[in-house]
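Question (not urgent): is this output format expected?
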Amino acid sequence: QVQLVESGGGLVQPGESLRLSCAVSGSIFVLYSMGWYRQAPGKQRELVASISKSHTPTYADSVKGRFTISRDNANDTVSLQMNSLKSEDTAVYYCNGVDADGLSMFSWGQGTQVTVSS
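Got this back:
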C-alpha cells in the first residue's frame, strides 16, 4: 500500500517562499508521474504541478513561473519549491501519483497546510 507523507507547510507573508516535501513509500516510485495538488477552503482539489518519470515538469497557469517541482528517485521524494507566494496560494497541499488523465492514483496523505497572509 502506497503511503504519502507531506511536510514543509507553514504561515508566510505574501512574496515569501516555502519548500514542500513528500516522502513516498510502498510503491516503485520511479514508475509513476508525481504531482502536487492543493485544496483551498470551499474549493475542489486541483493539480498545480506534476513531474513525469523522466523529470519533465508541468504547471498550472496559476503557479507557472513561481513554483518548481522536482523529484529524487533515489530517495523516493518529490518536492515543490514555492516562491513569490500569494494569498490565493493558501490551501492544504497534497502529493500523489498522477495518471495520464491528471487524476490521482493513490489514497491521500494528511497534506500540509500553507497559509499566505500579512
